[in-house]
Amino acid sequence: MIKKTLRQISEMISVKNEVTSFADTEITGVSIDSRKIEKGNLFIPFKGENSDGHKFVEDSLKKGAAAALWQSDIPNPPTDLPILLVEDTLEALQELARAYRKQLPVKVVGITGSNGKTTTKDMTASLLSTTYKVQKTEGNYNNHIGLPLTVLGLDEDTEIAVLEMGMSGRGEIEFLTKLASPDAVVITNIGESHLLDLGSREGIAEAKLEILQGLKDGGLAVLHGDEPLLMERINRYKGNINVQTFGRSNTNDFFPTEIIQLEQGNMFKINKSSESFELPVLGTHNILNALAAMMIAHYFNVPFTKMNEGLTSVKLTNMRMELVEGAHGEKIINDAYNASPTSMMAAIELVSNLKGYEKVILVLGDMLELGPQEEQYHLQIGAGLHPKKIDLVFTFGKLAEHIAEGARSTLGNNRVFSFMDKNVLKNELVRHVTNRTLVLVKASRGMKLEEIVTALQKK
Q: pTM for the whole thing?
């Protein structure tokens, strides 16, 4: 993590006050949460609509922070403490991260996409870790605050940083990529997330392609080659970049030549190697995420013979195709972190094709931020269910009632249940599970459907 004196910090960001009296004070790492201060931290307070972190500056210094920033429009900054006065504390955080990134010899991989970016980040970091010292975005630190914090958390001897870049509107990916200055980037796919903000899949594609604006000259851009919206735009792109593609089609640079679905993952082969690769992650769509990660590893000269080591040891962020067991011995796929029509159809395809279960139950909740056609998207999910592969459907939420409506058209009324109360849903659900049941739980994060998973696991 960043280790600098306050004199050095004042040379990296715009500071309004005189720092001579504490110029040799050294900070180690930064924190924006006064409750999580570690010794030597630089505390960065933010002023929000309902709270002001400046109230906790003195307390943070007592807890061990070495220094703190202070926004110049906030009155009464402490005069006897190591304080750096700045115009805006958020912009100072971002400015500091940008300057620190420029000082580091680290290579950076930037990853974005509508679906699969966190999974691809985890896989990429795991593959690269077989050969390099790697750090990655932790949790959901992928926005205008989280990414600068991740950069400032990089050790000086880290060789490759794998940074996830999220967005909700235009211009956000551009800001993040220009701060991170990546050597290589990945766009996993173009889905329907953020249709509410961006209006169309075309708008989403253009927003994701902003990641190229920070890519170093001659850098690698790894794209989903089966997505026309990406390929049409990349073919018109004028920058000096190296474009490579992955996908199911054999027109891509990397594509699978064989896929064998296992009980808790997949075995697959690719066109570039004679090796067989094992991926302990459910869903054939995750093989595409693995291909993107393998292309990045290949770019950084990780041999295919070592990639299995990275794939078999990958640790995914929680609630992403996570296979757990319920109290009655039922198997539960917890994919409750997020949902879009694309990712929900992929998850349903997975459970539809898994063998060895007497009963397959879907527990599906609202997919959020889909814009004016949100009801139609939900209806299509239900209407597309295969009556011989899905036994029961439970939905939670107002939008998910449209999934139930569509499901009744193919499964019939007696196999579809719709709820607005999680406890009522859970009580009905447990009546139908046995040790030969597979349950898929999926919805947008705001629906908190992991509570259903927790309830099923209680004895």
A: 0.81
The C-alpha atoms of residue 172 and residue 210 are separated, in whole angstroms, by 8
CA 208 to chain centre: 14
Q: Tokens representing 362?
A: 């879907």
Both 286 and 378 in one domain: the answer is: no
CA distance 5 to 257: 54
Contact present, 318 and 333 (Cβ < 8 Å)? no
Q: Which residues, at least 6 apart from 229, have a Cβ–Cβ distance to it below 8 Å?
A: 190, 201, 202, 204, 205
Q: What is the mean pLDDT of each run of 10 residues along the chain (459 residues)?
A: 95 92 94 93 90 91 94 89 94 97 97 90 96 92 93 97 89 95 95 63 88 96 93 89 95 95 87 93 88 98 94 78 88 88 89 89 93 91 95 96 96 96 94 94 93 90
Could you tell me if residue 283 is inside a domain?
A: yes
Determine phi and psi for 250, rounding to 5 degrees. -80, 5
- Do residues 131 and 258 share a domain? yes
Query: Is residue 94 one of the residues assigned to a domain?
Result: no
Q: What is the CATH number of the domain that holds 26?
A: 3.40.1390.10
> By the 8 A CB rule, do 191 and 204 touch?
yes
User: Residue 440 corresponds to which tokens in the numbers above?
Assistant: 């898929």
Residues 292 and 274: their CA atoms lie apart, in Å, by: 18
Q: What is the pLDDT of residue 365?
A: 96
How many CB atoms lie under 10 A from the CB of residue 105? 8
Determine the Cα–Cα distance for residues 45 and 63; give it in Å rounded to an integer: 15
Angle at 289 between CA 445 and CA 406, to 5 degrees: 50
41 found inside a domain: yes
Instruction: Give every CB contact of residue 217 below 8 A, 6+ residues apart in sequence.
Output: 239, 240
Task: Please report the pLDDT score of residue 420 as a whole number.
Answer: 96
Q: Note down the domain range covering 270.
A: 104-312
Cα 365 from Cα 377, distance rounded (Å): 13
Cα separation of 113 and 166, whole Å? 8
Q: Cβ contacts of residue 433 below 8 Å, gap of 6+?
A: 326, 328, 330, 359, 361, 439, 456
Rounded distance between C-alpha atoms, residue 458 and residue 72, angstroms:
52
Contact 164, 118 (CB under 8 A): yes
Q: What are phi and psi of 379, to 5 degrees?
A: -60, -40
When divided into structural domains, the chain yields a total of 3
Same domain, 117 and 152: yes
